[in-house]
Write a structure and sequence with these properties.
about 375 residues; alpha+beta; seven-stranded mixed beta sheet; six-stranded mixed beta sheet; globular
Length: about 375
């Protein structure tokens, strides 16, 4: 009798497994990439002198074209594999000079047939680097979009901390009269993903210029703004599907992410109106998207709201996340061997960050 019950249990289990295998799912990729200094060769009103033909980077039309070639290769291959053959349906980006460079990117020969639309605003950042969202028009239709400013001010403090670097970005962005630090806005886009409402926030939080400790309050303020946007969306709809992504210049365990946004790294810890951060587990395993002084950090983060991690797959749900760090994106020689292959000393690369992505899945009808 016991053997018969065991046999029946196994048979039932195999039957359920077979049914599950017969189910078909639709898959979309959502990605974020720091484009690292995507500048054209035209002298604009921003501090772009370094990225001109006669500037420090000797940024010629040929080099600009190569940069577009490189970025378009990444964006068309990002997240593709056995489970996904299509390029991302949504791409958040940062370090973008203006809308013109995005127009050149989406019209690139390898991108144009993807038919990406653009949501972009000029930010108050004095270098003129902005955030933006690219979207596949056949799958995503924007309903509304706005840029939300981050109001932060320099506070008098002592010397730079021991981790201070020589990044002068915030010095350029500092208004010496008002003490306001002009940094990137947070971009909020609400639209229909194959008919289902999805909210996307694209971020590029303040840098660590002056050192991590001294600059941390600026990113904590960015985290509070991010949470305020998330809470406003939840107030309208407690079941709101929200994706917040960007280069946060902080990791999953920094106060800006862990406390101010309130992101959780384990699904079981995420309560209604909460936020799940799948990148936390990757960070715990030593994975990273950028390297500095031979140490890896995972500052490029995609977080999703609680409704995305529910078990009903009749609508879009989060499936899994990844870092796109293929060999062609890696520096092969020299001092920075193993680092992301960036633009440096006038040489054209890809970016000093690896892109990140998540898969969304929905059961096909």
């Amino acid at each position: 009798m016991k053997k018969r019950l065991t046999f029946l249990f196994v048979a039932a289990l195999l039957s359920v497994t077979a049914m599950a295998q017969q189910k078909k799912f639709m898959v979309h990729t959502v990605a974020f990439y720091n484009f690292e200094n995507l500048f054209d060769t035209i002298n604009g009103p921003n501090f772009d002198e370094e990225w001109l033909p006669d500037g420090k980077q000797n940024w010629t039309g040929t080099k600009y074209k190569q940069k577009l070639d490189n970025l378009s290769r990444v964006l068309t291959e990002l997240g593709t594999g056995e489970s996904q053959k299509e390029s991302p349906v949504l791409i958040g980006g940062c370090e973008i000079e203006n809308r013109n460079v995005l127009e050149d990117l989406v019209k690139h020969p390898s991108m144009i047939n993807k038919d990406y639309g653009i949501v972009h605003f000029d930010s108050p950042d004095k270098r003129g680097i902005d955030v933006a969202l690219l979207y596949k028009k056949k799958h995503f239709q924007p309903i509304s979009y706005k840029n939300l400013p981050l109001m932060i001010y320099e506070k008098e403090s002592g010397k730079k901390d021991k981790d201070a670097d020589d990044d002068k970005e915030e010095n350029v962005n500092l208004d010496k009269t008002t003490k306001r630090i002009y940094t990137r806005d947070q971009l909020l886009v609400t639209g229909l993903l194959d008919g289902e409402e999805v909210n996307v926030i694209v971020n590029h939080w303040p840098s660590r210029s002056g050192g991590e400790k001294k600059s941390s309050p600026n990113r904590e303020a960015a985290g509070r703004l991010n949470r305020k946007i998330i809470d406003s969306l939840y107030a309208i709809n407690p079941n709101a599907k929200i994706i917040s992504m960007g280069d946060l210049n902080d990791g999953s365990f920094n106060k800006s992410v862990k406390i101010e946004v309130g992101a959780k790294g384990k699904k079981e810890e995420v309560k209604p109106l909460g936020i799940y951060n799948p990148m936390q587990k990757m960070a715990e395993e030593g994975m990273g998207t950028l390297a500095y002084r031979d140490a890896w950090d995972l500052f490029d983060i995609i977080m999703v709201s609680e409704p995305f991690i529910r078990n009903d797959y009749s609508s879009w749900r989060y499936w899994k996340a990844g870092i796109y760090n293929k060999p062609f994106l890696v520096q092969k020689t020299g001092q920075y061997k193993g680092y992301p292959l960036r633009n440096s000393n006038g040489e054209v690369g890809f970016s000093d960050h690896f892109p990140v992505y998540i898969y969304l899945i929905k059961e096909a009808k």
